[in-house]
Amino acid sequence: MKTGSCRFCGTKLTHTFCDLGMSPLSNAYLKAERLKGAEPFFPLHAYVCERCFLVQLEEFESPENIFSDYAYFSSYSASWLKHAENYTIEMIERFGFNAAHQVIEIASNDGYLLQYFKERSIPVLGIEPAANVAEVAREKGIPTRVCFFGTGTARSIVAEGGQADLLLGNNVLAHVPDLNDFVAGLKIVLKDDGVITMEFPHLLRLMEKNQFDTIYHEHFSYFSLITVVQVFRKHGLSVFDVQELATHGGSLRIFACHEGNADKAATNSVEALLAREAEAGLSSLSTYLSFGEKVRETKRSLLQFLIQAKKEGKKIACYGAAAKGNTLLNYCGIRSDFIDFVVDLSPHKQGLFLPGTHLPINHPDRVREEKPDYLLILPWNIKDEITTQMSYIREWGGQFVVPIPSVEVLP
């Protein structure tokens, strides 16, 4: 992406979608020895392209520095593992994949999904840029290439005799700074009759539910179906089906194939969703320009709640050292003056400190020890899983608080 120009169509970016000020990288967790050193902050300013309506950030830090050593391991969410297994079953039933087919996943993380294809004797290949995460996948017996995906990687795989019958990527499309190179690579590595599925947070849901905390530097782009169809069409790929998912506060799963593949006729769901997006105003620039005030109002409401709670002497803890939580805390200026401690189930985060706010990350057992009055759920997209897991806080009158789309104290 050229500075100030759309990473897809090259149009000059002049329209603000949402300005969240200066923020550190949301997954740049700190060790204790780094707390007194300088910490880089970058503008977290999302623009919208007036031509293709791609919402996007400028690139301030390279993907290599963001993703080469990553703190997020997918397998620590039970609900996400279930989602992955259900996906595997659905793809096999719908398209008949078996031991004669090849499944390739881009941004395969710790093998959380490919393990379910492997269990069914279907050949798999993971592509994962974070070496520390890829090593966990390899320990599970998942073949994994440590690299970023694009046309170069795609050609290398093809040269070695590999192509995908099923090519998938969950929550990776948003992480790609060179969008055109990435999608061009999809076309190269896909077999003639192959299927692509991509899952990504739905921009329409982000706007409807005020999910501004899903904006962070690791997410370079934010997609509507209107925009994704344009991007894939430019590279000779046709979106023939779409499903709306509950994951991450509302996501899309698109199905794509080579243009001209007569076996993959477009379903009614594509045109229906395109029409809904148009009706919601996603083809009108003014709709995007009104989003910023909703964000500011949420900030004011959350701070009012926290100020009042602290005036009443309440103890407040946060559950989940999530990237979206780091966006929220840094944008709202919420630090140890409001939050007593943070807990997270992942041992890869425990003992570290949140970027920007420097709040220490503890094991969830600390909640039972400290008995906070409020537990603020930062990864609100899995609030049902968390409220079930931590239901015991009600023993002492503790309550759960969800900050998005607006502050809500759960009964």
Topology:
Elements: E1 15-23, E2 42-48, E3 55-57, H1 63-67, H2 78-95, E4 103-106, H3 114-119, E5 124-127, H4 131-139, E6 144-145, H5 151-159, E7 164-170, H6 179-189, E8 190-201, H7 203-208, E9 221-222, H8 225-234, E10 237-245, E11 251-258, H9 268-279, H10 285-289, H11 291-311, E12 316-319, H12 323-332, E13 341-343, E14 361-362, H13 365-370, E15 374-377, H14 383-389, E16 399-402, E17 408-409
Please explain how this structure is put together.
This protein folds into 2 domains: 66-284, Rossmann fold; 291-409, Rossmann fold (3-Layer(aba) Sandwich), CATH 3.40.50.720. Strand 15, helix 14 and strand 16 (399-402) form a beta-alpha-beta unit. 33% of the residues lie in helices and 21% in strands. The strands form 3 sheets. It has a 7-stranded mixed β-sheet. A 6-stranded mixed β-sheet has the order 14-13-12-15-16-17. Helix 5 packs parallel to helix 6. The termini are far apart. It is an alpha/beta fold. The model has no long low-confidence stretch (mean pLDDT 94).
In short:
By secondary structure, the protein is an alpha/beta fold. It folds into two domains: 66-284, Vaccinia Virus protein VP39 (Rossmann fold, 3-Layer(aba) Sandwich), CATH 3.40.50; 291-409, 3-Layer(aba) Sandwich (Rossmann fold). The protein has helices at residues 63-67, 78-95, 114-119, 131-139, 151-159, 179-189, 203-208, 225-234, 268-279, 285-289, 291-311, 323-332, 365-370, 383-389; strands at residues 15-23, 42-48, 55-57, 103-106, 124-127, 144-145, 164-170, 190-201, 221-222, 237-245, 251-258, 316-319, 341-343, 361-362, 374-377, 399-402, 408-409.
